Amino acid sequence: MEHRLDEIDRRIIHALMDDARNVSAPTIAEDVSVSPGTIRNRIAQLEDRGIITGYHASIDFERAGDRLTNLFMCNAPVSERETVARRAQVIPGVTNVRELMTGRRNLHVLAVGEDTDDLRRIARSLSDLGIEIEDEVLVQNETTHSYAPFGPNDGERAETVTDFISLSGDAEVAEVTVERGAPIAGISLERAVREGVLDDDSLVIAIERDDSVLTPHGSTEIQPDDIVTVFSRGGVDEETIETFRGE
Amino acid sequence: MEHRLDEIDRRIIHALMDDARNVSAPTIAEDVSVSPGTIRNRIAQLEDRGIITGYHASIDFERAGDRLTNLFMCNAPVSERETVARRAQVIPGVTNVRELMTGRRNLHVLAVGEDTDDLRRIARSLSDLGIEIEDEVLVQNETTHSYAPFGPNDGERAETVTDFISLSGDAEVAEVTVERGAPIAGISLERAVREGVLDDDSLVIAIERDDSVLTPHGSTEIQPDDIVTVFSRGGVDEETIETFRGE
DNA sequence: GATGAAATTCTTATCGC
DNA sequence: GCGATAAGAATTTCATC
């Protein structure tokens, strides 16, 4: 009954962790070379076996009406931890609960509130359950990602984008590693812009090559393994990144 | 541009946080009494506005091949926190990163590893980024939930199930609050079983009423607001819970 | 695990307020 | 700009091999 996961299961998990809503069974099926029905069966099995426990949208509650996200780090007696964890989950505002194996702060409760008063209400609800709040912090940002080892193993494919900063307005700066076979590799910046390979709104502002940093000019050629810094006034979108990515 | 969310947006967010994959636009549309197309447009807007940031499957990695989930609580200089957070995200195995506003442990990194060696590799990767690991703990369990205040406001509808414990095998024990209008309310246990209202595999083992605990017999009648403890050898499924829930 | 028909849902374009 | 509507494409469901 305790079947191990095969390649199909792993790829399904990877795909659904990455995007649970907009990935269809046929899409995954093509990647793994089986029929869509098989993907569907496997997904149902993974759900039945309790491996896939749910699909949840991630929400930026700060943008969604100026709400606060707070992390309560709590102490619950080990013998009751599972029970109080379950009761904490249903407190209105609580969106995530982590039970930790050891330590004094063995219960992390993530909660969203309209304001600090609302968070106090949640704190009181936790206390009422016999949970001791050891520390609490506002959460600035949270991101969730797929489990890379379950992803496609096309070689050593490192992530292309190594850094990423949003500036005022829609402008963004991204640092990307140029892959072999990337559309922009081997041609000059001037030509890249002229031929539309590089977006008009994007500007290569630095090139890191062999541990030294070059200042790019029109005649500068981008090479594989260069780490280029790209500024884009309208935001660095997926299409721009593709320019630096191999096929 | 900074429009506040209306009831439609809130209900969409609630629905997608609860189940991002198996909820269709028409389903939500019916709940809110608008056309499916509108729901679709709103979802696209919420994504564009950066309020919905993604849809992720939740995976129980312990069941998925005996992997370990570990939480690294780290310290990153505030000035570099955003940058290192972004770099930490792409370390293979890292599935979640929380940036916290204040405190010494202002970066929580959740990572999955095949074994402790694998986790050490991830820890080393974090250190290489200049992140100081202050503490680390194995995660036993994690659950994610919808944001209740965005849910349907049909009265004060408290959660029916207040506690839930899995026993050996498939057996489970659940503690549920009986709602007004529930199928089982007002009839004796014996009759409930006879008429199929209560599952054959389910057994009411305790009734908490007015702060005292009753021992149930065949002639005992379940009343609204009773907190009943149900044991089921095959697992307490949604159908069983419905027995205690109002229409 | 694959196949095929039927129901549902999603995409897209178009119209009206 | 926002929501409703309708046609065609794609996906999911279900039974069957």
Automatic annotation (TrEMBL), chains A, B:
Pfam families: HTH_24, TrkA_C. GO terms for biological process: potassium ion transport; response to amino acid. Residues 5-67 form the HTH asnC-type domain. SMART domains: HTH_ASNC. GO terms for cellular component: cytosol. Keywords: DNA-binding, Transcription, Transcription regulation. InterPro entries: ArsR-like_HTH, AsnC-type_HTH_dom, RCK_C, RCK_C_sf, Tscrpt_reg_AsnC-like, WH-like_DNA-bd_sf, WH_DNA-bd_sf. The keyword DNA-binding applies. Residues 159-247 form the RCK C-terminal domain. GO terms for molecular function: monoatomic cation transmembrane transporter activity; sequence-specific DNA binding. PANTHER family: LEUCINE-RESPONSIVE REGULATORY PROTEIN (PTHR30154), TRANSCRIPTIONAL REGULATOR AZLB (PTHR30154:SF34). This is Lrp/AsnC family transcriptional regulator.
